[in-house]
Design goal:
Blueprint (H helix, E strand, L loop, with lengths): L2 E4 L8 H11 L3 E3 L7 H9 L13 E4 L2 E4 L1 H12 L6 H23 L14 H28 L15 H16 L1 H7 L4 H12 L1 H7 L24
Parallel strand pairs: 1-2
Antiparallel strand pairs: 1-3, 3-4
Helix pairs in contact: 1-3, 1-6, 1-9, 3-4, 4-5, 4-6, 6-7, 6-8
């Protein structure tokens, strides 16, 4: 039975972290809201169900048969062993999960650069605050998070080709997506800082060249970044840091 991924249609968003794992593994999955006969209504029906025993608060969530798993890190912790994208050692699985949860924190901060006050307001309603938030994000938070991931990669006892262990895990794929998103949203700032993170950039490039990922990136299944998702490019927010 195919996995069913539920996320908003038209944007990469948080769902993309799950898609990358499914694509790398060659898993059979359905992107539910992109199916004409189901669409976003099918996702909303699950979320607003009055009878479902374990309803998700928000997308993304994954259905595996009768099981519903919400939240990116939780989904990947569930899928990792099934897809061969998590270490066999249980302790290291929790290390990978910890890194993925840190990715979750970083992604939330990236989102808040363009919506620093209120999710219900348009970006145009909070531009001065967004400019101040983005300046702080570029100056302080990008180096804080990427510096941490760079150090974790460098100190991997099995070598700096992967974040954990000696084989690809889902957090490698997620960091590829983070670098992609930051390059889109803050190209000037990232160009200035790229020499500081050689290991992460090498990991990003290696993931992009993996055969299944490369085919996915070139396919219509990989949506383009846009100004409706988490990573948005507003030139006025892209200070050089």
């Amino acid at each position: 039975m195919a996995y069913e991924l539920y996320y908003w249609d038209g944007i990469q968003g948080r769902g993309e972290f799950v898609r990358l794992a499914l694509e790398e593994a060659g898993a059979d999955y359905i992107d539910v809201t992109r199916q004409p006969e189901r669409g976003t209504g099918a996702m909303i029906a699950v979320m607003e169900s009055e009878s479902e025993a374990h309803i998700p608060f928000a997308p993304p969530f994954l259905k595996d048969g009768d099981v519903i798993i919400p939240h990116v890190a939780n989904i990947l912790f569930y899928l990792g062993p099934k897809l061969g994208l998590a270490p066999k050692d249980e302790g290291l699985r929790h290390v990978v999960n910890g890194l993925q949860l840190t990715v979750t924190d970083f992604v939330a901060e990236a989102h808040d650069t363009h919506h620093p006050i209120d999710m219900s307001l348009y970006y145009e309603d909070q531009k001065p605050e967004a400019k101040a938030r983005s300046a702080a994000f570029i100056r302080d938070r990008i180096p804080k998070f990427l510096g941490y991931f760079e150090r974790a990669l460098r100190q991997n006892p099995k070598g700096a080709n992967h974040m954990v262990g000696d084989a690809l895990t889902y957090v490698d794929l997620s960091l590829f997506q983070v670098i992609e998103g930051l390059n889109y949203a803050f190209p000037k700032a990232m160009t200035k800082r790229k020499a500081e993170y050689p290991g992460l950039l090498a990991l990003h490039d290696a993931v992009a060249k993996r055969p299944k990922i490369a085919r996915y990136l070139a396919s219509p299944r990989r949506l383009a970044f846009n100004e409706e998702g988490i990573f948005r490019h507003y030139p006025e927010l892209d200070g050089a840091g």
